[in-house]
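Hey,
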Amino acid sequence: MTDPSRPPICVLGLGLIGGSLLRAAARAGRAGFGYNRSAEGAAAARAAGFDADTDLDAVLRRAAEEYALVVLATPATTLDDLLPVVARLAPECVLTDVVSVKESVADAVARLHPGARYVGGHPMAGTSQSGWAATDPDLFDGAMWMVTTEDGTDPDDWLTVAALARDCGAQVVPAANDAHDRAVAAISHLPHLTADATAAVGAGESGLALRLAAGSFRDGTRVAGTAPALQRAMLEANRIALLNTLSETIDRLTVARDELRDRGSVEIIVDDGHRARLAYDVMASTPAPPIVDVEPGEQGWAAEMRRQAHLGHTWQR
């Protein structure tokens, strides 16, 4: 019999993240199939040996028949069209997503599929490439994968989504939607904007500047190479949290500009940034401690998981 915490997966969208998820799950022995709007993408997945189709209704009817875990792996801008179809054809399936924002997705689910067994997710992995050709079954190995952990989250459904993340090689980070969106605004979405700004300033200087550009420019602008439509969909979906983070960044840069003009120094921003980078290096090189002494379903389990996650712990079972 199928393990109830590891049902078949139905991935809607077979681009970089969705396609890599389907491949990673298959590597772990999970049954799965998928939908892709592009016939070319679906054909590429089939050519690689995966079960993929362009008929959304047929894929979701199959998901309902097999009690599959449905994974939304399309941009946030597509959800208003996609969710009503999921609600109509696969209403009893556990539903998750891999979209890089959580509050706007949760709001869309509540509005368009109010009875959904929804547990949000966000794997912190990716490249600047897109499409099935960019997929990689190893993409999530060692990555952090946020799994929505609100007070009202169903513990069995949470375990189903957490098991998928673990099977894909990731570590699970329990978090509330609003806390997640504030965090990714700072460590993911802001870097896209600063990369875009750095690339634009560098390219606008002269051909000489681009010819001289080396590691700092290359590394600092890597994510600016992501398709503009994908960047906009991600950044604009998290506009409130990103506005706050961007305002703090502008304030720091304004102080740095004034200090450079008035005192000839950029000491404050450089020292602050250096200390922050060293703190990141320490955390990134240290294995995350496991969340302990809490089981999904116990009284207060979600709050305790969130508390430990804010200390840097992850769910590793």
